[in-house]
Amino acid sequence: MIGHSPNTKGSLFPSFVKSLVAAALLGCMHLLIGLLPGSPLALSTNIVLFASNLYVLYCAWLVLRDGSNISIGLFALGYMLLFLLVLVLLERQSLFILLIILYASVFRVPVLLGIFVIFVLSYVVFQPYAFETFAPLTLAFWAVWKVHKSGAAWFKVACLAVGLVALALVLLPLVHLLIQDSPKTLEFVFSRSDVRQAIWVSLASSAIATLIIAVWGIPLAYALVRSEFRGKGLIESLIDLPILVPQSVVGIALLVMLGPGSPLGETLDDLGLTVAGRFAGIIIAQVFVACPFLIKTAMTAFEGVPGHLEDVSRTLGASSAKTFWRVSLPLASRGIVTGMILAWARAISEFGAIILFAGHPLTAPVLVHNEFQKAGIAESRPIAVLLLIICLWIFVVFHFGKTLLPSGFGKSRKRRQR
Length: 418
Fold this sequence. Notes:
Layout: H1 5-35, H2 43-66, H3 69-89, H4 93-106, H5 110-125, H6 130-149, H7 154-178, H8 183-190, H9 193-226, H10 232-239, H11 241-244, H12 247-258, H13 263-270, H14 279-303, H15 307-315, H16 320-331, H17 333-348, H18 352-357, H19 364-375, H20 377-402, H21 409-417
Helix pairs in contact: 1-2, 2-3, 2-4, 3-4, 4-5, 5-6, 6-7, 8-20, 9-14, 9-17, 9-19, 14-17, 15-16, 17-20, 19-20
């Protein structure tokens, strides 16, 4: 290797000479363009463009020195694409100068080059949705890059890339909605008493509904996982039924069962326990639509708890209830919290059943709908943004709080093996 180093340096010398010749020709070309009568490009602008192109030539020489002919070919192809897209099609010379400097600077760092490509696509091609596309696509590219560097198979990397790009497109409307209103607008909207009350009703009712589901849903999930009996499959299918039923059908069903004129509804009215059109009715509708998310997720979490750990606990003298509280529930806690987050999210977003069965007091989704009906999207959009921001913050808090809970048995065993 040492004996070949002089030849290597000698082989780079002609490339350096070629770069100097190219720089001289480039300078002459810019000078002639700037001196032409009626030239659309001023001489001072050509000097700036010449300096940037000179830097690009230097970076190209570094690529040729450290890489191969294929690398310099890709470098030239990227330059030509920027030239055609920005300078020829868009006719934005200052933007072209900025982009080619950035391009030449990051070309030899693949991860930065990928982010640069996303930046160009977002702010040049995908206008006026630049930020909405740049942020999620950059996160997706970063995740794919980390998986690729970990040595994953190309098929897994390709599946992840396609899936994350599709997910970014799905989430694009929400990201676009978040940046539509200024903080002052949101502050003004939040100062309205009806908006604060609607948001409070949504948060309180969804939290109560989630706790009610947890009280009976978690034990039911545990019993279904640890028991075998005829008809178990039918019960598990019935748990999924609220997901399949349209929201409007849920609202009509609750009205027929508990609304005015129904036997049960009249009995509740006589006892002073009216639920239709009340806060309690909102909670009932939310419990109905959200319970499958908690029960099914809790069942999956309990299935991940090895049964022999419970057998050991029983052998040591613990009762079934004590085994549930001290062994099964802690090990399944992360999955259960995930189910509670999903149930809460489904409850707070419910609209169809609530507007038919319990339209008062107003929840935030119902208020957004009413404002849209009265004044259009301009009045309803800030309320929707507020609700979205609050839900995102609560989701983030729950997500990081979940990491403080005990890990599942399988995850702990994998960590010990590593």
